Amino acid sequence: MSVSELVRCKRAIAGGEYREDFAFVVRDGTIVAAGDFQEVREQARDLDARSFPADRLVVPGFVNGHSHAYQILLRGWADDLPFAKWRSDALYKVVPQLRPDDVYWTFVAAFSEMLAAGITTVAEFFYLNGNGNAHAEAAIRAAAETGIRLVFARTWMDAGYAPPEFRETIGVAAERTRELIERYPQANVCVAPHSLHAASHDMIRAAAEFAREVDCMMHVHVAEASYEGEQTVRAHGVTPIALLQRLGALDERTVAIHAIHITAGEKEAIANAGARVIHNPMTNQYLGDGICDVEGLQALGVTMGLGTDADVKPSLIDEMRSAALLQKIARLDGSALGARTAFALGTSQGAKALRIAAGDLAPGNAADYAVLDASRIDPWSPAVNALVYRGEDRWVQGTFVGGRRVYVGERSQLARLGWEAAEKIAKRLV
After folding, report:
1. Residue range 5-60+359-413, CATH number
2. Does the pTM exceed 0.70?
3. What is the CATH number that goes with domain 62-354?
């Protein structure tokens, strides 16, 4: 159901700035006016009001730019493995066995965990498509029933080494993707050739053309590990970003996932093409991938977001903090990538990277927001700094998507069922 109401916040973060006695008007799930309460209320005389007191801080919902939700089943037992072994002995062992019903319940559990952490949008990179759309439809249903806003990055993959449950021909992948786009407009379905090593060059070209034809985004893993660049240069004589460019797959629709091991020239190519980058700092540390040069890309004007990727702990608060601290370490400079930029990566800039209207409490955006326990913030600390450097998921007291409350401060009945089912699935498969 669409929501229309006046939301008054004694304390809020809007436009990246701390605000007091702030308000916004929601009509049919979209913010149509925002500003000082005394100015805004006149535009909402016909609406009911919702008010948050001074011990609550209202912030834009966090935007998760890249996730593989089924990987919550790998947590714990698959830790501390080198990437090749993690992929072969964990990822490729478990995920191909998932039935559509397993996907539904695992995604209910993962999406509920995200909502409890204030995440209102997730871009789910989904590659279990080899047997048709049933698995994808289960994931989309989980998003709809938990209430999270979904960007469904529907993977195309044809590498011979990948499990058959992941592989398709170009024609089949295109047909199935088009079917999802037509059946589930609310899922923001877009195309996602897996990577330069897991999708053939013909498939990547076709995916880029498909994105242009239907006007959707194209997500692709690129330059995540150092070996990828070395293999690409050895096999094709160019670096990964240059290869994407050669294949006609680097433009304003491209969402480059990771982009860690890239040259200065490749960074400029990304910027010149208007492509976007999703940085996954927690997973990059977990898998030993490396550190993306966020500062360098931001200096060139590249739009970026943050993702939880392997979902070891799907927390955008942790991702924002990690993004800032990694840049300080990489540059040996405590002033590198400040809290405000990190916060923007997880909210407004992240939404822009996905091409969705969200990420800020501003007119024209979806009424997606989280309500935090402001008593956790030191009275002398700027709210954004406190959230980025000291925030915790348990500060989240409520989460709203399109103005509708989808997390109330404790697990819903559906979330509890999801976790019970996920436990049984993990025991069966692991």
Report:
1. 2.30.40.10
2. yes
3. 3.20.20.140
Give the per-residue SS3 of the chain: CCCCEEEEEEEEEECCEEEEEEEEEEECCEEEEEEEHHHHHHHHCCCCEEEECCCEEEEECEEEEEECHHHHHHCCCCCCCCHHHHHHHHHHHHHHHCCHHHHHHHHHHHHHHHHHCCEEEEEEEECCCCCCCHHHHHHHHHHHHHCCEEEEEEEECCCCCCCCCCCCCHHHHHHHHHHHHHHCHHHCCEEEECECCCCCHHHHHHHHHHHHHHCCCEEEEECCCHHHHHHHHHHHCCCHHHHHHHCCCCCCCEEEEECCCCCHHHHHHHHHHCCEEEECHHHHHHCCCCCCCHHHHHHCCCCEEECCECCCCCCHHHHHHHHHHHHHHHHCCCCCCCHHHHHHHCCHHHHHHHCCCCCCCCCCCECCEEEEEHHHCCCCCCHHHHHHHHCCHHHEEEEEECCEEEECCCCCHHHHHHHHHHHHHHHHHC
The domain ranges of the chain are 5-60+359-413, 62-354
Per-residue pLDDT of the chain (430 residues; tens, 9 = 90+): 689 999 999 999 999 999 999 999 999 999 999 999 999 999 999 999 999 999 999 999 999 999 999 999 999 999 999 989 999 999 999 999 999 999 999 999 999 999 999 999 999 999 999 999 999 999 999 999 999 999 999 999 999 999 999 999 999 999 999 999 999 999 999 999 999 999 999 999 999 999 999 999 999 999 999 988 889 999 999 999 999 999 999 999 999 999 999 999 999 999 999 999 999 999 999 999 999 999 999 999 999 999 999 999 999 999 999 999 999 999 999 999 999 999 999 999 999 999 999 999 999 999 999 999 999 999 999 999 999 999 999 999 999 999 999 999 999 999 999 999 999 999 999 8
- Structure tokens belonging to residue 392: 């915790």
